[in-house]
């Protein structure tokens, strides 16, 4: 039995090697379909979100026998959610989302997978369903909004002085910010971009973004746009908690992406239809073609036999429990679930996993407003800078050329304003309560009021008569007795100092257990589906090493860094080792 195996057997290694040879082929390419050869080692993937599906994809292409166990719905937080009972006269139901999709150009792992998911009529598979957003809107209460075009930049800066001048001028012009504040922020970006890795991990990861940028004493525009909004948009975290290394890394990508160097495409991209139709369903179809099996079940625990996982306890929807066995186990569970599996026995073998109990999760969840008329807010994402609940939105119908809203529901919906709520802990303007304390009806009314307060102060862009209905992510459930919401899908927050608490994907101390998820250490280092995808590839590569497979390793990518600033990063490595500050850190 698999539960009795105490080490990787010679037969397991040979099967993995044969499967790898089949996968590699004469040219080293992965096989396009299911091989006739004997399946490779059995792998149980615990969790069917982006991390789990990515691991399943990579392993199945390399000939492994893969089964995915998922407690709710494949796709996890990335999936669409059908709005029950909304379809009429043969039309499909309206689609809700955990949150609007966002595929920035610096994502490279997710697009690489998308190109390997066939889609009828698309030469590049699901990847061809990505469309670019040409602009972003930063909406303010009682003042003019800022529309920022998102296009390709003309040239890369040639020197640190050029960097400061170019970036500060762009910030001052587009954000209507005092030049002194814009120059200060540009210099803080320069300090980070010229910081060596040792400083980023050893110094900046321990400093909050607010402290790093020196927000105290700066203009309101500086504090709201460059300190608060940046952090809530990226990681749903407060600027006094978010790690400077994480926010700085993302700022580095957003600065570099317009030059279209070392990236996959335009800065802001979305899918051209509901996520399930344009991505998740074609993906799971492809995985089934490759032989992946999907089983409904919630993981309740792991069983050890020496230094190997011998089985996982799974409970199905009916409450029936059983122990599943496999040669290898990939834990593709979110951090708040995974850390509950670490028994004293597991922690004795991998004591570093104890740090996961200190990782912070918070809420960033979507609500959709279905409209009877098209909205005219922005040709891209909009951020509502002064909103207490840190709202952002996208008007979806303008991008959904495959599945227009008029073809869904009762036929009267013409648009969907998909909104993310990033701050669930600050009182709102309508009821004076936090989102966690509001009923679902109150959440909808409060979000609508905050949107109108931003958009209707100059022109009436949102009209009550246009509101057809709304849908709140089903992960949010109301506890009437406690007068408070629960959230089944919280989000990891990259707080200052959290890198030290996060584990690597694999350790030889538990030889057949592999961790994947956006809490695992990755290069992208952000709670995103890109981080989930990168961590899954790292886990699969570790599994290939353990089995001795000759199959090609999964591609992994690194974040962009301006080559022009590399000499300054090398100099900074010497300065950091000597205990000196970055040369631009005045």
From TrEMBL:
SUPFAM superfamilies: FAD/NAD(P)-binding domain (SSF51905). Gene3D superfamilies: FAD/NAD(P)-binding domain (3.50.50.60). InterPro entries: Amino_oxidase (IPR002937), FAD/NAD-bd_sf (IPR036188), TAT_signal (IPR006311), Zeta_carotene_desat/Oxidored (IPR050464). Residues 50-544 form the Amine oxidase domain. Coiled coil: none annotated. Signal peptide: none annotated. This is FAD-dependent oxidoreductase.
């Amino acid at each position: 039995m698999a539960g009795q195996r105490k080490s990787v057997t010679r037969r397991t290694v040979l099967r993995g090697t044969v499967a790898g040879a089949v996968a590699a082929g004469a040219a080293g390419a992965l096989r396009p379909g299911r091989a006739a050869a004997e399946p490779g080692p059995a792998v149980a993937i615990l969790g069917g979100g982006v991390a789990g599906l990515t691991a399943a994809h990579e392993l199945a292409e390399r000939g492994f026998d893969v089964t995915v166990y998922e407690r709710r719905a494949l796709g996890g937080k990335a999936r669409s959610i059908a709005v029950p009972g909304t379809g009429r006269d043969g039309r499909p139901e309206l689609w809700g989302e955990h949150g609007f999709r966002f595929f920035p150009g610096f994502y490279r792992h997710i697009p690489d997978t998308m190109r390997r998911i066939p889609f009828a009529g698309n030469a590049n598979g699901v990847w061809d369903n990505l469309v670019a957003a040409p602009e972003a809107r930063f909406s303010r209460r009682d003042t003019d909004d800022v529309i920022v075009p998102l296009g390709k930049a003309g040239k890369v800066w040639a020197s640190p002085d050029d960097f400061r001048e170019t970036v500060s001028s762009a910030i001052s012009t587009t954000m209507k910010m005092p030049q002194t504040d814009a120059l200060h922020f540009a210099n803080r970006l320069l300090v980070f971009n010229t910081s060596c890795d040792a400083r980023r991990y050893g110094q900046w990861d321990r400093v909050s973004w607010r402290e790093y940028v020196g927000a105290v004493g700066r203009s309101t525009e500086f504090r709201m746009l460059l300190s608060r909004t940046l952090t809530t948009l990226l990681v749903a975290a407060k600027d006094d908690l978010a790690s400077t290394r994480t926010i700085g890394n993302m700022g580095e990508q957003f600065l570099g992406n317009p030059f279209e160097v070392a990236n996959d495409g335009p800065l802001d991209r979305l899918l051209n239809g509901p996520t399930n139709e344009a991505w998740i369903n074609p993906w799971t179809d492809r995985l089934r073609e490759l032989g992946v099996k999907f089983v409904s079940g919630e993981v309740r625990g792991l069983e050890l036999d020496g230094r190997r996982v011998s089985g996982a306890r799974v409970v199905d929807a009916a409450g029936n429990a059983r122990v599943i066995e496999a040669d290898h186990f990939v834990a593709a569970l979110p951090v708040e679930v995974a850390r509950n599996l670490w028994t004293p026995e597991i922690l004795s073998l991998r004591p570093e996993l104890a740090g996961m109990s200190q990782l912070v999760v918070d809420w960033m969840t979507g609500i959709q407003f279905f409209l009877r008329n098209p909205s005219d807010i922005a040709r891209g994402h909009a951020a509502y800078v002064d909103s207490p609940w840190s709202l952002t939105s996208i008007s979806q119908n303008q991008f959904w050329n495959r599945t227009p809203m008029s073809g869904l529901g009762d036929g009267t919906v013409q648009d969907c304003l998909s909104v993310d709520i990033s701050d669930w802990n600050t009182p709102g303007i309508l009821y004076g309560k936090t989102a966690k304390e509001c009923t679902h009806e109150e959440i909808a009314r409060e979000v609508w009021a905050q949107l109108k307060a931003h958009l209707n102060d100059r022109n009436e862009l949102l009209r009550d008569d246009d509101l057809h209905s709304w849908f709140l992510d089903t992960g949010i459930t109301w506890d009437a007795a406690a007068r408070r919401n629960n959230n089944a899908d919280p989000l990891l927050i990259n707080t200052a100092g959290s890198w030290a608490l996060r584990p690597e994907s694999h350790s030889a101390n538990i030889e057949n257990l592999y961790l994947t998820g956006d809490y695992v250490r990755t290069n992208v280092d952000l709670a995103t589906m890109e981080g989930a995808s990168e961590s899954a590839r790292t886990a699969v590569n570790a599994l290939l090493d353990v089995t001795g497979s000759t199959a090609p390793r999964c591609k992994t990518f690194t974040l962009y860094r301006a080559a022009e600033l590399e000499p300054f990063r090398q100099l900074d490595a010497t300065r950091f080792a000597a205990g000196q500050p970055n040369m631009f850190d005045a």
